[in-house]
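Support request, please re-run this one:
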Amino acid sequence: MGVYIFTLFLIAGVFYAIPVKKISCTISVCLMWFITAFRNINVGIPDARGTYLDLFNNLRSQNFFSVISNPFAEGWLFNVLSKIIQIISIGNYRFYLIILSAIFYTCLGIFIYKYSSNALISCIIFFCSYLLFTFSMLRQFTAICILLLFSFSYLKQRRFIAFIVSVILAGLIHSTSFIFLIAYPICFYLTYNIIFLFFTILLSIFGTLFSNTILTLLNLIPMLRYRMDLAESGIYSLNTNDTGYGTLLMLIIFLIFCFLILKKRISYQDNILLLLFSVGIIFQGWSHVIVEFYRVAWYFTIFLIILLPSCISKINDSLIKKSIFICIFIFYLFYFIYYVVPSGQGLPYNFYWEIYGL
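Re-run finished. Output below.
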């Protein structure tokens, strides 16, 4: 735990010591990259610990042309990227993780620098919400980096073809990314208001409160029974701990807060962010029914890393703004310690050269 807490406070210190956004953002993202790239592979969700090592070893036995000649394979583009990295890394798995992590964190850093009104808050949110899950889900987060860096930009510019192409590329890395296609019609046709806020809260809570009833009904359908079993025993199981419920409550609170701040002056970008974030909350609420929705929600809820800073930047009173920042920092610190670390099984944290770690 000491490594995480030290790094988090170090990130905060960097932003206060170095006022230049580009430099402080770069250093902070590099710190998160270091934690991810140089971890022991046994840190993280048990079911996914050997995933990338198995893929890496499998790719070593294949030539490049055999990999690219199978475009219908799950995660085909990720396999191609992994093969290229495997060649560059000269067959060293640690170098593979270092390069793969660097790709994601480079994209994340550019996204935060380009769109965030407060890069420190963005880094805190990402660190405390998603960092541990990058340990075991680098393929999905590689897909997410495409959505952040390209799809969001095309969505704002209403470049339909470019948006579709970027989402398809993300989908070829991780098939769940295709769900982001719904972002275009939602953000193109809808304007955020209190009705949408009410609908989001109602639908997400309904999926959570009545999940057992819904699961019972869905279990009556034979072809869905396996998926329903995953909701109880899969690696994203939400019945073994209260992480799903706590996360949903947290997201709803932030949504209400953002809406109350922005309701009289919702900009074009804020409207898109509110819509995307709300869609993610709905998926989060229904993840107690269909467990894959837990990871699908990340494609949308991750935009909180720029939505929340945008809201705080619109508060004129500097004392209130500082007080809110302190509250957010403390809140996320406790959220990370008591929810994310147990769920992501991030303890004990070991660097790859250690036998025993902090």
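Residues 231-243 have pLDDT under 50 and may be disordered. The CA atoms of residues 151 and 166 lie 6 Å apart.
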